[in-house]
Write a structure and sequence with these properties.
seven-stranded parallel β-sheet; Rossmann fold; single chain; 15 helices; eight-stranded mixed β-sheet; alpha/beta
Length: about 425
């Protein structure tokens, strides 16, 4: 890499206050991977107001929590009070990056990579470009702005943003979304950390399988949002259960109101639904709660430790990441890395190959998904082959590999 420093600008980040979805996971893991590769890395995000403004979290990695004075009045999370945070972030981040990171680096003859994430940071990227030019430091910085989703696209000043930074995105699907708006983009995929590869610990896998003895077992994790095709999953599961009365579906959603409509539909289809919570935040407590359930659909309504989540992926007959609109599809890739069998949609999941390393749904019809699940249940050889190919695919998306792609694209972005 031809830069010694990297700065990531994001609203989401590693704090529970800031971690909402794939963006929080992306910037947390990307910043760690950059630091591990020897690049001094700073992640500036809208962090927990009760944690230190500046925190050194490892060799080469610093967290900078922004907008804390606003977040103190908005305890609901990173997007609570968003329209007050965006202008504050825009106004204050750019001068801090120029004076505290770029200027000292440039004085030493070093180069800085800046990656701004999603629409909330677009104005900060534009302001940073302006200040760098005024200071005569623009040539010391390679600047990228990355689109993880289409949220907020209508509010972006695309002309100014394209003049300020090279636009990137995470999949060919998102590249097309940008082309619709007349913008060319470089594709740099998301990655997965090495710790996921090889699957969860054997002991945890055995404990998870012992707690969830009903088969076939399916898992679905994601926001309660229509884009995630929850209704397709519920309707497909009802069809499969008619042929396999012992079937169980374990779900983990969010706080969105749409969740009630999903479970109402499950009951209409004759499925029993039960919510469970662990007595504490550890895996053993949640497994104890799961072991006591007999419902067809079990919704986890408490924190799921990362290792347990991956153990659930591993022991399930299939993980239903069947989104209808998915910019990248990180869950599907995590399932593969965990040794699980991923069912994806057909939008941003560039890595998914139908009936080779994943099951891919082209429609939102529950019958399509049900047919594919039955094919898996009736052909153990096919299921084993897909799992094995999925694990090999995950190896190609480890962050160390993705950083090589980033380095090459950054060299072009510098021109």
């Amino acid at each position: 890499m031809d830069f010694s420093h990297a700065v990531l600008l994001s609203f989401e980040g590693p704090d529970p206050y800031s971690m909402v979805g794939g963006l929080g996971t992306r910037v947390t893991e990307l910043s760690a991977a950059l630091a591990a590769s020897g690049v001094e890395t700073t992640l500036l995000f809208v962090g927990d107001p009760n944690l230190p403004p500046v925190e050194r979290v490892g060799n080469g990695l610093t967290y900078r929590r922004w907008c804390q004075w606003i977040s103190a009045h908005h305890p609901g999370g990173v997007y609570d009070g968003e329209w007050g945070k965006v202008p504050d972030y825009t106004r204050s981040v750019a001068p801090a990056v120029v004076d505290e990171i770029v200027r000292p680096a440039a004085a030493r003859g070093e180069r800085v990579l800046v990656i701004a994430e999603d629409w909330q940071t677009s104005w900060a990227a534009i302001e940073l470009d302006r200040l760098l030019r005024e200071a005569g430091l623009r040539d010391a910085v390679t600047m990228m702005w990355n689109a993880n989703n289409t949220y907020g696209f209508d509010s972006i000043d695309w002309g100014a943003l394209q003049n300020a930074a090279r636009i990137t995105t995470v999949s060919r699907y998102m590249k097309f979304e940008l082309q619709v708006r007349g913008r060319e983009a470089l594709v740099i995929p998301n990655g997965i950390p090495d710790r996921i590869l090889g699957g969860p610990p054997d002991e945890l896998v055995r404990a998870t399988a012992a707690a969830l003895t009903q088969r076939p077992l399916f898992v679905k994790v994601g926001r309660f949002d229509e884009d995630k095709r929850w209704m397709q999953a519920i309707e497909a599961f009802a069809l499969v259960r008619a042929a396999h009365p012992g079937a169980k579906l374990v779900t983990r959603g969010g706080r969105e109101a749409y969740g009630e409509a999903i479970f109402d539909r499950a009951r209409q289809l004759g499925l029993s639904v039960e919510g469970v919570k662990g007595a504490s935040r550890d895996a053993e407590a949640l497994l104890d709660a799961l072991a006591g359930t007999t419902a067809d659909v079990v919704d986890i309504r408490s924190f799921v430790p990362e290792e347990l989540l991956f153990a659930l992926y591993h022991v399930a007959d299939a993980v239903l990441a069947n989104s209808g609109k998915e910019p990248f599809g990180l869950v599907g890739l995590e399932v593969m890395a965990s040794g699980g069998l991923a069912v994806t949609g057909a939008t941003g999941e560039d890595y998914a190959e139908p009936f080779s390393n994943a099951i891919v749904c082209d429609t939102g019809d529950g019958r399509e998904l049900a047919v594919y699940l039955e094919a898996l249940l009736n052909d153990d050889r096919l299921a084993r082959s897909i799992r094995s190919a999925g694990e090999a695919t995950a190896e190609r998306y480890r962050w160390s590999v993705v950083l090589d792609v980033l380095s090459s694209k950054a060299a072009y972005a510098r021109l």
